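Is this the right way to post structure tokens for a design question? Let me know if I should format differently. Anyway, here goes:
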């Protein structure tokens, strides 16, 4: 196995809105593992790239839900039909209809500048090279492929760092909207967190770490602050940090 490759799971959702989405991501990971096992690193790279693009789509989905006005503004330049489809999207995977290099520009909404987005787009170019019948084998050894996976994961980690502000913003909005137990979607705090926060926003373990770190004292003036405290405590209990996070 490629050392560290499993880290991608820290950035992928802990639960999905549909079983089809969950099975798709699982299929990609299994395809990656199978090709690595048989030294087919070029095909393993394709599967891993698709996992990374799924991560990107989940990030853009969070932007769409948390900052809808900015998201709509960012679609200037898209044709009307595509704009309509993206605004009406019910799944993050709808973003796959957009050219991969183009869809990355949505990351500007989480303060990724043009230089960084250009660097991320190079990954798309590398994927295109490996996917075409051009007579080249791009990864001839496990160590070579392992270096590429480390490079990809550095990019993923960088994008995730840029997501911290918007994730905390979304969590703040969730806490405020969920503070009244009689008005929110689920009376049980655990169910409210799992179904409304985690599933609808496609929260990853890394996203949930941002939520655990959110300072709820900013919300002390809210009318049901005791319920906000209960929600925050329930989040930490349902989704605790793993041993490595605690050690860090």
């Amino acid at each position: 196995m490629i050392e560290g490759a499993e880290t991608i799971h820290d950035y992928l959702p802990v639960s999905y809105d549909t079983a089809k989405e969950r099975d798709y991501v699982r299929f990609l990971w299994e395809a990656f593992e199978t090709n690595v096992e048989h030294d087919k690193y070029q095909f393993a790279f394709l599967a891993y790239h698709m996992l990374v693009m799924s991560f990107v789509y989940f990030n853009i989905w969070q932007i769409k839900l948390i900052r809808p006005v900015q998201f709509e503004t960012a679609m200037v330049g898209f044709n009307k039909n595509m704009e309509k489809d993206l605004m009406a999207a019910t799944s993050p995977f709808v973003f796959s209809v957009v050219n991969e290099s183009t869809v990355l520009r949505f990351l500007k909404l989480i303060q990724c500048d043009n230089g960084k987005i250009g660097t991320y787009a190079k990954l798309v170019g590398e994927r295109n090279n490996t996917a075409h019948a051009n007579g080249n084998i791009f990864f001839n050894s496990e160590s070579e492929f392992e270096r590429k996976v480390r490079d990809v994961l550095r990019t993923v980690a960088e994008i995730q760092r840029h997501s911290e502000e918007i994730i905390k913003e979304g969590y703040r909005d969730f806490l405020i909207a969920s503070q009244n137990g009689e008005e929110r979607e689920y009376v049980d705090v655990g169910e409210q967190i799992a179904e409304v926060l985690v599933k609808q926003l496609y929260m990853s373990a890394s996203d949930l770490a941002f939520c655990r770190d959110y300072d709820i004292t900013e919300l002390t003036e809210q009318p049901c602050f005791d319920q906000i405290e209960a929600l925050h405590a329930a989040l930490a209990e349902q989704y605790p940090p793993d041993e490595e996070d605690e050690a860090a």
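Format looks fine. Someone answered above. Worth noting: The mean pLDDT is 91. The two ends are 25 Å apart (CA to CA).
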